[in-house]
């Protein structure tokens, strides 16, 4: 308790001197690493908040492959908390994929840079190649990231992006980062407007969260529903005794612990609640399947339900780690070690209770305010943040469209004449877009790159989700809501030893 109170209290004091120090951005440009499309620019390096590399964010920025001066700026953040955004860059939505040789790359035709300028930042400090003070909460992380972005926009190389539409995209634990950061940036914009704070406004126009972990109560409960009947797949758990035991454990142990946590409970009560719910409810209901992807059983074999070439691209999943370690100096990255997810960051956020506290009200406030277009999309083979639970979150959260949302029918999501998922759109404001993507696990774009890029383009361009004419979704239109006109789990798939597999849950279960 004492260190927490101290760090929260000390934060404003510590931030003040930052402005007095010169802050700077240092980078390598056009390295030819990853993005090899001719004439497409890239920059990677550090956003240094004190010019001494004490508090410093690693970033990698890619211009859009098409009309970069007309395109918005999208910030991608992986979750964890503590996971590197390089997961997104190399596995989900970036310009390249690492080949099986782990030494070369191929262009990703489904890179989101076909539609937007993309900025990847490792945050909070400690994640990926970023280093600095020990951040413990979502709110602290918001403040430092805001400073980082201010520093980045202040650099001549990037100032032109300050007045673009700003899109924030994250996943998994990003269900916390996304809404908390959006609210904080909004409050800073107000202070800038009234002269209390110096800086450029960061008007987030769109917020995208993939396979979000929004609310432990609703979503842990949904783990049971989903294990019994995961729509589109065979049941995960059929043992009626086990199901009954787990329902009892939810009602008698997990739910009360979460209630205590979310009813003003202490940090340790929240941390304990996460552990209880994971061990007593999630683990038994995940059965012998990969929590990231129910199609994978513990022997590492894909079930017969998998028959899709996109999935195999995942063989490159961890290849990027070697590639990135080998090339880190070329892209300006430093640091002795590089891990997908930093256990220290994760432990600090667990210790602060933030992983047990619900982010449902943070999301509801943003949706209800109606100034930011929100899309939640979910790969439907994920168990960690299953789509039934995310749908339930939107139906139950406190916003004026919740009944309309709950009652609306899912519509067919089409791509190349195939049904690749379903969606619901409640037109706003306040409104929301919800998308279920078939045959995709926790890090949805990694499994269905083409669908993800297509849905991303439809959403950011303000096109109808049912639009199948690509010529109608190609051009970016500023958000209707910006009046002025201006995110996982890093668990490797296919872990093929049940003991190691289960043990790894205990350590990593709340990652991403
Ligand atoms: C940065 O770290 C160094 C070494 O720990 C320390 O001497 C220095 O005061 C720090 N600078 C700031 C601005 O915190
Ligand atoms: C993305 O852009 C690249 C380079 O301009 C192009 O080759 C590729 O076909 C585009 N991808 C799609 C899906 O249109
Ligand atoms: C859990 O889900 C069941 C079935 O949907 C529901 O009846 C019950 O009220 C839920 N419990 C809590 C605490 O949300
Ligand atoms: C079903 O679950 C119960 C409770 O965990 C367990 O004791 C029993 O062995 C299981 N039955 C089978 C067939 O696995
Ligand atoms: C995976 O499944 C195939 C075909 O069913 C089988 O031949 C193979 O032995 C299995 N591999 C493992 C590791 O169980
Ligand atoms: C962002 O919002 C602020 C406050 O509403 C406004 O003054 C500013 O012009 C906006 N900037 C852009 C680039 O939209
Ligand atoms: C499975 O993993 C555990 C823990 O890493 C190890 O002790 C055990 O030997 C492994 N078993 C097999 C069959 O590989």
From TrEMBL:
Superkingdom classification of source: Eukaryota
GO biological process, any: proteolysis
Gene Ontology molecular functions: serine-type carboxypeptidase activity
GO CC field: fungal-type vacuole
InterPro entries named in the record: AB_hydrolase_fold, Peptidase_S10
Span of the signal peptide: 1-24
Pfam families assigned to the protein according to its UniProt record, in alphabetical order: Peptidase_S10 (PF00450)
Keywords for the protein's UniProt record, in alphabetical order: Carboxypeptidase, Glycoprotein, Hydrolase, Protease, Signal
Family statement drawn from the similarity comment of this UniProt entry: Belongs to the peptidase S10 family.
Protein name, entry field: Alpha/beta-hydrolase
């Amino acid at each position: 308790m004492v260190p927490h109170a101290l760090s929260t209290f000390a934060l404003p004091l510590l931030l003040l001197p930052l402005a007095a120090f010169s802050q700077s951005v240092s980078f390598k440009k056009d390295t030819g690493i990853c993005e090899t499309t001719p004439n497409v620019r890239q920059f990677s390096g550090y956003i240094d908040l004190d010019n001494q590399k004490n508090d410093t964010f690693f970033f990698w920025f890619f211009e859009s492959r098409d009309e970069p001066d007309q395109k918005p700026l999208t910030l991608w953040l992986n979750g964890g908390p503590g996971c590197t955004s390089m997961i997104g860059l190399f596995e989900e939505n970036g310009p390249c994929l690492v080949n099986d040789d782990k030494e070369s790359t191929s262009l990703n035709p489904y890179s989101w840079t076909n539609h937007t300028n993309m900025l990847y930042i490792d945050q909070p400090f400690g994640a990926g190649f970023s280093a600095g003070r020990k951040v413990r909460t979502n709110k602290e992380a918001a403040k430092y990231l805001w400073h980082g972005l201010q520093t980045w926009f202040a650099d001549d190389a990037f100032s032109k992006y300050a007045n673009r539409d700003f899109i924030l995209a994250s996943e998994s634990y990003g269900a916390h980062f996304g809404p908390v950061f959006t609210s904080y940036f909004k409050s800073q914009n107000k202070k800038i407007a009234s002269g209390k704070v110096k800086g450029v406004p960061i008007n987030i126009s769109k917020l995208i969260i993939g396979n979000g972990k929004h609310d432990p109560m609703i979503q842990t409960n949904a783990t049971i529903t989903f294990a019994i009947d995961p729509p589109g797949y065979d049941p995960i758990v059929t043992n009626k005794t086990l199901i009954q035991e787990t329902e009892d454990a939810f009602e008698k142990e997990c739910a009360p612990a979460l209630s205590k946590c979310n009813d003003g409970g202490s940090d340790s009560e929240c941390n304990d609640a996460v552990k209880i719910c994971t061990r007593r409810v999630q683990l038994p209901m995940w059965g012998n399947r990969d929590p990231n992807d129910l199609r994978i059983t513990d022997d590492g074999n894909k079930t017969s339900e998998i028959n899709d070439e996109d999935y195999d691209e995942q063989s490159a999943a961890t290849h990027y780690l070697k590639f990135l370690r080998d090339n880190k100096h070329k892209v300006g990255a430093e640091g002795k070690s590089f891990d997908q997810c930093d256990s220290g960051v994760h432990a600090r956020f667990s210790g602060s209770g933030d992983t047990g506290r619900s982010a449902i009200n943070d999301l509801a406030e943003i949706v209800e305010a109606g100034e930011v277009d929100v899309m939640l999309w979910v790969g439907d083979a994920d168990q960690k943040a299953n789509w039934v639970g995310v749908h339930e979150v939107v139906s139950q959260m406190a916003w004026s469209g919740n009944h309309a949302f709950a009652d609306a029918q899912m519509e067919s999501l089409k791509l190349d004449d195939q049904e690749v998922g379903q969606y619901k759109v409640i037109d706003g404001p306040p409104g929301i877009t919800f998308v279920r993507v078939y045959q995709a696990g926790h890090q949805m774009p990694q499994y269905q790159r083409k669908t993800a890029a297509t849905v991303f383009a439809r959403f950011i361009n303000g096109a109808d989700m049912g639009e199948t004419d690509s010529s109608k979704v190609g051009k970016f239109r500023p958000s209707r809501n910006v009046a002025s006109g201006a995110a996982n789990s890093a668990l490797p798939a296919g872990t093929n030893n049940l003991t190691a597999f289960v043990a790894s849950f205990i350590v990593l279960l709340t990652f991403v």
